[in-house]
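BUG-124 | component: ligand-complex export | severity: low

The export step for iron/sulfur cluster jobs runs without errors, but we want the raw record kept on the ticket for reference. Input record follows.
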Amino acid sequence: MPFVITDPCIGTKDHACVDVCPVDCIHPRKDEAEFEQASMLYIHPDECIDCGACVPACPVAAIYDSVDSTPSTQQGLVEANAVYRAGDSGAVAKAEAIVKAHMAAHADLMAVPPAERAAAHAKG
Ligand code: SF4
Ligand code: SF4
């Protein structure tokens, strides 16, 4: 089961997870053209080896260790992680559309500062 990035990354996107991932499966990286366009980063499920290194690296607890452990409010973002693949034509737009829909549907969570958003997931 792959690891999943969720909405505390929106507004944080500090790249810490990319720097520790041993298989370079978190994108877009800062040196990729789509980094500025992306609201958050994505873990590709086919490439993640479930090593767990990214979880303690994330300052806002945005990363869950499986689809099953991802809270219900965040399940829509599972698909955003899966659909994005660096450099694929149209992939960033598809992922961003999912993220924008998530943000619209969860205005309550978006109003919580990123550092406190993961704690709000548990209450949802
Ligand atoms: S669990 Fe490991 S392989 Fe998967 S995204 Fe995190 S650091 Fe990369
Ligand atoms: S460490 Fe967390 S907040 Fe930073 S880019 Fe990765 S998932 Fe996003």
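Assignee comment: Attached the raw record above. The chain has one domain: 4-123.
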